[in-house]
Each structure stands twice: as C-alpha cells, then as structure tokens.
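Think of the structure tokens as a kind of shorthand, similar to the way a musician reads notation: each symbol stands for something richer, in this case the local conformation of the backbone. In the example below we present two proteins back to back. Begin with the first one, reading the sequence and then the tokens, and try to describe in your own words what changes along the chain.
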Amino acid sequence: MKAVFRVTGAVALSLLLIFGSSLAAYAWSAQDPVQGNDPSMGAYSLFKIGESDDDAVIANFSNGVSQTVGTVGGFQVNGTFTFESGEPKTFQWEVISDHVVDYVFVKGGTLGYLISIENFPDVQGNQSGGYLYTYSGGAQSSSPGTFLTALPQSASNYHGISHVTFYFRDKPDPDPDPEPDPDGELIIEKVVILNGYDGELPTFEFEVYSTDESYYEVYSLVGAGETAPIVLDPSLTYIVKEIVDVDSPFQPAAETPVEYEVIFGDEDGYSFKAVFTNAYIPPQVDPEPDPDPIIPEPDPEVIPAIEEALILIDEEEVPLGPAFVPVDSSLPPESEPEDNFELILLDEDVPLGDALPLTGHVAPLGFYGIGAMLSAIGVYLKKKSKI
C-alpha cells in the first residue's frame, strides 16, 4: 500500500531554510513525500533509472556528467547525477524525444525525518519512500539550475537516490494556429428625403479612415442606396463620415448622424452599417415686386365737357414801356449832393387807388377747366404710349 503525503507550508519552509536557494529554484508544481515504492499515477508509460534490472543503471553515470539513456517507447532523456561519498544525491534531467513528463518519482530513504518535523498519521518512521515531483501540464526538463533529491535524512543531508522513475506520455501535437478573426465588413447606406423633388439625385461622398492613420479611402453613392461591403482589418478602429457639400440642396437631415466610429467584434458579426440621411431643401423664392399703380382712364363723357369749357383768348399786343435814352457822356455829370446833405422822408400814408390792378378780363373758372383738361389729356396720352 503506497501513500502520498502533501508537504505543508511549514515543511516546505523548513526545507528551504535547510537546503538553501536550490530548492526555491525547483520548477515542479508539487513535491510530495510518498510511502513505499513507485505510486500508481494512471495510464502513463514508465521509464526507470536505478539498479541493474531497471531500464537504465545509476551506476553507469559519472559524477556531474550528462548521459543520454532511454529505450521504452522511444523515450530518451539526458540525466545528470551528482555523487557524494559514492552515493547519488541530486539529479537533473531533460527529455530529448517527442515526449512530455508529468511526474518524476525519486526513491530513497525513509520518512523518519519528515515525521519528526510534521506528523503523518499511520506512518511509521522506518517506512521507506521517496519524493513525487509533479509538473502540471507536462514538462520536458527539470529547468536549468534545479535539482531533484530523495528524502532528507537530517537537517543538512539527503538520503541517497535508489532509483528515478519517469511518468511520460507522447508530446501532443502543437495547437493549430487559431483561426484569424474574420474580415470586418462596413456598409454605407444613404437615405434621401425628397420633399417633393423629382429631378436627378446628386452623388454623395464619404471618407473612411483608421484612427491609426494607416487607412484612408473615399467612397461615393449616386442617390439613395448602399455600397457593397467594404472589407477592413477588424483589429483597427475606423471613422466613417459624410463629405457634406454646403452648396447642395441636399443637406443632412436634422438629428441624424454625419459620422460613425466603427469597431468590429463578435457581437455584431464583424459587420457594421453606417446610415446617413439627407433631405431636399427647396430654394427660397424672392417675393414678386409691387405691380405698377393702375391709373384709371378718364371718363369719355368728361372730355367733351372739358373741351367745351375751354375759352380761347385772343392775342393782344403787349404795351411797350418808355423808350431807352442813352446817356451822353460829353455832358457834365450832375452834381452830387454834398456830404452834409440830409434826406428827410416824411411819414405819410400811401394813397390807395379805387381798386386793385386787374391782371386780365377773363373769369378764373375758365383757367380751372383748362388745367383739368390738360391733366386728363396727359394721363390719357401716357396710358396710350404704354399700349
């Protein structure tokens, strides 16, 4: 009956203090004391280095010299023993065949010293055993600078190694290269709100670029519709935005995006659709100017009445004033008044005539009629000239 005992933290700490830093460098994931001989660890192939009837013989090793051994199942290992007083005390190994090792059992000594520092129930101190070294996930070496030993016999020494057993298996095929992420696919869709427009639709342009500036392209769509899938690197982040023509009557619709950040992932199947919406904006029409004022035509019945009211005035000679008499420069000038002459004007009433002077002998009503007639004729002629 074989038993495996887990070394507790206290024991591991004691061993580290006893044997120094070499224990700290061990690459195994567990070092467990085992009562008895090689423990059964399941369906493994075993290779043993030990006595003359084993797969390889420790006695054939030279102190500190690496030696290649192995025959079982093509298993080959380079082993190195160090000897003290003719006994093998430490061991290093490295597999050189296509195999991995999950456990190494190093037999040698008894459990007496370990029981003295930590109690193992139902284990007698005179029971022989060894250490079982575990390599999680498998290993192909004990790692440079690390050593395997048999059980300790005191605070400063190990028991000699009687044999070493490898629990190995075929090296698994390397994991196939993981499938790369599928290509990212970007689709640009254009929606157009016509608002009564029935003409040809313009060409819309969009720029697509990566945030690391390694990619830049411009894509276009004529009118409404969508592009074919644009294949992109799914590991990059992209920006897609519309190039807006400020002079176009089709402008981005209110509360609709003009830019997207594109990040590909499993949740969207590495596909992204960017939808842009534009609306037709009718041009602003200037209001019509005020029409020319309408001038009413004169009443045909009024014109004869005006013509009848016209009074012809006979031409008369304009009375002449007194004749001009030239001044005779040979005559002596009239004497001017002396400086001490004083002109005195008497303040008297201006005599008035019997009546105001007359400007004509025709009643003013006739002139009013003539004015009205001329105005009507002018309006008539002006309207007639526009026809």
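Once you have a description of the first chain, move to the second and do the same.
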Amino acid sequence: MFCAQRWPGRAKATSRPPRRFASRASLPCVWALALIGLSIALPWAASAQPVTQGVALAAVEYNTSNALQLRIGESADQDARDVTLDLQRFQIWLQVPVPLDGKKSIAIPKLRYESLVARAGDSDSAIHLKVLDLRLSVRQALGAGWAVIPSLNFGFASDLAQLRTRDFFGGASLVVTKRVSPSLSLGAGAGLAVASDGPLPVPVLILKWTPRKDVWLSIVAPSRAEVAMAPLPWLEVGLAANLTGLRYTLSGTPTVESGRYANVTAGAMGTFHLGNGFHVRLDGGVSSLVQFKVEGLRGGPDVHRGGGVGWFARAALQFRVFPLGR
C-alpha cells in the first residue's frame, strides 16, 4: 500500500541508522484544530453541563502517525533496507440509533468514510486510499441484564483508480453482554472479517466499569481501551490506546496484489465539552506498526514490518447524546 514510485530500491542493508522522516506538513493541521477547539471550548466552559461519556453519534477526526519504521526487501534479512513511514488519516462517521421495540431492541446503522495518505522516506509521492464502510448493528435486550448484539458490515478500500471486486470487504460479529451491576458490564463474542486475501477471525472482549460517574474504564478488545476521569464539568482527561488496521489492494500506481497493516497508538487524551452535545477531543503519544506487509508490488520490492516507535497526534470533533438517568 505504502510504496510510491520513489520508494528505495533493493539496496543491501547497511549499518547506517535509518533516517527518521517526520512530515512537518501535518503539524499545522493538528495545531489548527487544537486551537480552534480550545477557542470554542473556553467560552463555553462556564455554561457546559456536568456530563461524562455519553454516546457519540457523529465525529470528524484527523490523525497523523510519523516516523514509523519499515523494512523494504524480499525478506527480513536479504537485500533489506530500513525506511520511515508517515500516515495521515481523516475520517468522518455518523450513526443513528433507531428503536425497534421500545427499549428492548435498537438498530444502529453506521456510515464511515476514511481517507488515508501514506508517504515513505523522503519521497514526494504518496499513496491515497479511500475507505467506505457501512455497518448495521442491533442491540436486543434479553432481560436480567443480558443483551445480544449481532452486527454486519460491508464496504470497500481502494485508491479508486479502478474499483474491482477484490477491493470490497465485509464482516459479521456476535457479542453477548451482561450488566453485572449498575457500574459494571462485561461482554464477549467473535467476529469474522472477509477481504480479498481470505477470512480473518477476530475475538471480542468488553469491559465497562464506572466506579463513579466521573471515573470510568472502557475496554473493547482488541480495538480500543480507555481509562479516564472528569475533574471538571467541561473536561475529561485520561489515557487511551487504539488499534487500527486495513486489508486492501491497489490497482493504480503502484499496483499491489495484497496488503495489510495494523497500527497501535497509545497516549494521553483530553476532551473539552463545548455544550449542546459537541466535544473536542485531543490525543497524543506513541505509535507503532505491529503488522505491515505488502505483496505483489509491481515494479518494486515487497515490504515487511520493521521495528521502532514513532509518534502520533489526533484531533476530533464529536457530537454525543447522554441517555436519561446518567
């Protein structure tokens, strides 16, 4: 995926450390969003309602991960060379809960669009990947604190040079949750993601614990984890970790028969309540590629995962609702 025309060739590995390349162009975008959010948040702080968490219905997000290390070559120890990678992700999504049977059954359709830009080393060329994902989940209460949540999704990941059948993906999952107490909920299930390179089973574990209304721990493994608190009515602070990934093919330039990546970010977060359901969230910390592989790259070597840790910054504008009784 992330192999533009000017990727380094098959040079033999040397003892010289890889050049760490960080995209300066991405920094103004993050700081601009941060300053806009703060300028809006501070005047609203005095009138914001003392609420925590809530259910996000929509979000606009920009995320940059920089100085990630890759190994270029046919194998990890032959004709290999280390380079650095920068990723910029922009996504916007919307979900609308629809009651089906009072409070017992709720359908949640969700539409997500993502634009991913990747640049390796000092190259001026970049890969642009578009993702459109439509998901439908249904939460069915079973009584005694039990609930079941089946989910289906369908979409595509492509550079849009030529949309082909192998650019499409789909999946399904089934999760069962139990409200153990008013402050603790547990869940478990499994999912199956299907793309051009075959099916991928994914286990799901859920833990949500709220010992106080202003302190919470939320884990939806393997995708995200967060521990946070609300020291002020208009502010949330905490630590968060996220796992994002994608399987894809490219039909433009370059052409990639099969590719996949998984990126882990972990660091501090802060959310400013603007009032009327709007929030600005800022994250920053370390970023690492836990999986990265490109196969069938036309005109260049395959890409394998390298070691090392980079950094990331994220800014998001969210719209949340807060159920009665919170």
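Compare your description with these statements about the second chain. The CA atoms of residues 119 and 126 lie 5 Å apart.
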